[in-house]
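Reminder to self: tokens first, then the designed residues, so the page reads top to bottom the way the pipeline ran.
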């Protein structure tokens, strides 16, 4: 698709592909790849990941303004803005909760004085809670569920991919060099896909 400036997160919902693009959310027809509609996010600075819930609502993180936007009923509005989100990056909907991989509390540029951790937001009440012990463990980007309270998480700055267990144990699975971005995971084949932004390649790995 053309007409985009810096596309990042993707999510499928209702047969359409939704793409985060700096300060717009684009709705793309999957048949011809053309933008059907664009939803501007006023004052957004860095729209990043996209996730959809069972009702078809679409959530988008804005790292630089501690904001999560939501497209619901044709309206694209701020769903939640809170410093507790600590630069929200990766998003994942699990049941009635939005899981958030935070980058951390930023200083200059994308450097952080406090690295990120995993956060949960209740979709109904918007209550924010920590996943696990809330100990900071990276500049988090991609987030995928392994089930049983465990997750695969990527750290863009460090270039690692980690397994976060239900007991808050963090295990480094891969060290790929800076730029390990928003991961994908196919549970059926236990295959993880990792885009390496600085190398312009996509690598696949088996997760045992």
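Designed residues (208 positions):
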């Amino acid at each position: 698709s053309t007409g985009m400036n810096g596309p990042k997160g993707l999510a499928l919902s209702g047969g359409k592909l939704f793409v985060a693009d700096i300060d717009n959310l684009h709705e793309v027809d999957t048949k011809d790849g053309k933008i059907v509609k664009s939803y501007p996010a006023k004052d957004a600075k860095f729209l990043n990941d996209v996730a959809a819930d069972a009702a078809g609502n679409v959530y988008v993180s804005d790292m630089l303004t501690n904001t999560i936007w939501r497209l619901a009923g044709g309206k694209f509005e701020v769903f939640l803005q809170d410093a507790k989100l600590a630069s929200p990056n990766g998003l994942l909907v699990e049941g009635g909760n939005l899981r958030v991989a935070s980058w951390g509390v930023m200083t200059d540029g994308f450097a952080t004085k406090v690295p990120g951790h995993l956060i949960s937001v209740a979709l109904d009440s918007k209550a924010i809670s920590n996943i696990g012990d809330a100990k900071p463990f990276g500049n988090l980007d991609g987030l995928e569920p392994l089930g049983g309270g465990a997750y695969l998480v990527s750290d863009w700055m460090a270039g690692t991919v980690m397994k976060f267990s239900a007991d808050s144990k963090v295990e480094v699975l891969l060290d790929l060099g800076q730029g390990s971005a928003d991961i994908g995971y196919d549970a059926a084949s236990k295959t993880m896909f990792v885009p390496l932004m600085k190398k312009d390649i996509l690598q696949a790995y088996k997760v045992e």
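The first strand starts at residue 7 and ends at 13.
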